[in-house]
Amino acid sequence: MARERQLSRRSILGGAAATGLAGVALTGTTASAASAAREAREADVAVVGGGLAGLTAARDLVAAGRSVVVLEARDRVGGRVVNLKLANGGFTEGGGEFIGPTQDRIKALADSLGVATFATYNTGKNLLYKDGTRTPYATDGLLGSVPPIDVAGLANAAAVQALLDDMATKVPVDAPWTAAKAEEWDRQTFETWLRANAVIPSAKFLFDVACTSIFSAQPRELSLLHVLFYIAAAGNASTPGTLERLTETAAGAQENRFVGGSQQVPIKLAATLGDRVVLGAPVRSITLSGSKYLVAADGITVTARRVVVALPPPLAARITYDPLLPADRDQLSQRLPMGSIGKAIAVYDTPFWRADGLNGQVVSDTGIVRSTFDNSPPDASYGALMGFIEADEMRAFDASSVDEVKAAVLKDYALYFGDKAKSPTSFVLQRWDNEGFSRGGPVAYAPPGVLTEYGPALRRPAGGIHWAGTETSTYWNGYMDGAVRSGERVAKEVLAAL
Ligand SMILES: Cc1cc2nc3c(=O)[nH]c(=O)nc-3n(C[C@H](O)[C@H](O)[C@H](O)COP(=O)(O)OP(=O)(O)OC[C@H]3O[C@@H](n4cnc5c(N)ncnc54)[C@H](O)[C@@H]3O)c2cc1C
Q: Which domains are seen in the chain, by residue range?
């Protein structure tokens, strides 16, 4: 057993070292295939999930002198943040990518690890593709990046946006279910509310695109209260959230990117934790035995006084808990589905659209890809067009072959950027719905009736089990920043309890 583990570990370290993960241990399939015996470890705290939330919690617990083991199901850290290799030797980001103003905690974490940021390419015109017409438009005018729809639609959209921002100020980010109008707002979908308020079709179109771009869910799927909470959460303790900050590139959530790719942050963070991070270790059960918890993963069991579960709620529900979790916590996690999302990245020799005066950002009412970004590297040594595939569009293609998706994506890119877009040098597709340890993204969302009925169970510990993950964050819920905030919050909670 010892020799088998040494061998599997060494072989993994070869690969891990290349990504900066040297020191991180691998167990799971390799180790369990080698022997039926499990590795056993003891720690003050077992952390389930090696995404930004779990790793941040572990960092703070270790800094406070506690022993920690992080159990991560995949053979990599980062969860919904991943760098994907390109055929030309470069890389692109398959998950969380952008950061922006008021996302202070992810920024501080990246700074502490020496991961710098650069501005998302945003020079030139945006493109509106609507009703079969392609309209490039400048974003430095009075309307900013708002697409040039008809005047009545613009007036309606401006009024609706102001109303949403105002309603959001009435939603406490730490307890949306306590808002004075929580019940009224939680018993209707965003679609119902939009139909009553965004009455001009072109205005409704703008909010539909904004909704699928932010949540990767259709307006009919979301509680209005959840949408208002999400807007309120798009800020920090001193700066109230706004819808604009969610949707914008300049001065918004898409403003900057990480040098070396976003996964540099969790990779470097995991490296500071060394072999406290165990890869290939999906946790199957959490069992209370006396005063301690047995956290059983493939190939390893950790005995710990406290457990941090840093997973999206629907995945946390796939673990077997003994004793059972309180009913309201389980009902909550039964009711928070993941959005449906994919990213399609087409790579070209050059970012040719820049020469046409375009910044690579599209808003469209058709096709599989309705929102795009220029994902080229900072030195523009090659071009990369990244397209989001979201909600209904993703679900329609979840079971399709990569070639089928590629054909549909390139058809859209050609409509938006011309025939050159039909011939990429390579193409990368990341479908989160088909990822066993995410099952969608970017975030779990609340349909009507969930926050008011079950919201209080979101962060309430169940005995010695504590909850983290971006879905538990008060600010920047759904974002990398929210994941980091949740890890910092849960570490404080656990330290106070230990
Ligand atoms: C396509 C896409 C685009 C996005 N774009 C942005 C963006 O531009 N900016 C931004 O800020 N955010 C973005 N996000 C969201 C952001 O990536 C997430 O909010 C954040 O990474 C969540 O971190 P987390 O640690 O809470 O969860 P996760 O990253 O999901 O981490 C959970 C970890 O737990 C592991 N796990 C699951 N089950 C088990 C188990 N049973 N046992 C052990 N481990 C388990 C998973 O493998 C994963 O590593 C995007 C997400 C996606 C999918």
A: 2-79+263-325+462-497 (3.50.50.60), 117-121+339-434 (3.90.660.10), 146-247 (1.10.405.10)
